[in-house]
């Protein structure tokens, strides 16, 4: 009885299928995460400091740490780290007025009216160009 040879592709497909079945039995799911480059760099630095060479281990540790925390602590950990700073309309007007005091001081700059989203014509004072 001669054994039929399997192609490399068939062998690979069967291996992946066995691995998926094993992971399914253990309750392991595969996830994909899109993240900002800064977050990735921060994670890499933290992993290096802690001697972690596998990103999966780092994310697993973070997940376990989160699960062990109290609900209040989980809420604090998952809350966005954004600032509550808001630019008031008054501050925006002051900033715009200051910016408009010196238009044309940098040749080639273009100013855009935030209300109409159109370029503002800049008159240069004391131009060196002779007509």
Explained architecture:
- It contains five helices and two strands.
- With 131 residues, the chain is mainly α.
- It has a domain of 47 residues.
- The chain has a two-stranded antiparallel sheet.
- β1 and β2 form a beta hairpin.
- It is elongated, with a radius of gyration of 30 Å.
- The N and C termini lie far apart (100 Å).
Architecture blueprint of SSEs:
Blueprint (H helix, E strand, L loop, with lengths): L7 H19 L10 H13 L5 H14 L2 H8 L10 H13 L9 E2 L6 E2 L11
Antiparallel strand pairs: 1-2
Question: What's a concise summary of this model?
Answer:
By secondary structure, the chain is mainly alpha-helical. It contains five helices and two strands.
**Rg, nearest Å:** 30 Å
Adjacency order of strands in the biggest sheet: 1-2
Instruction: Identify the quaternary structure here.
Output: single chain
Q: Summarize the helix and strand pattern as letters.
A: HHHHHEE
Helix fraction?
Answer: 40-55%
| Content of β-strand | under 5%
Number of helices: 5
Main β-sheet, in a few words? Answer: 2 strands, antiparallel
By secondary-structure content and strand pairing, the structural class works out as: mainly alpha
Structure summary, number of beta strands: 2
Q: Give the uncertain stretches in residue-range form.
A: none
**Coarse shape:** elongated
Rounded mean pLDDT is: 82
Ends: how far apart? 100 Å
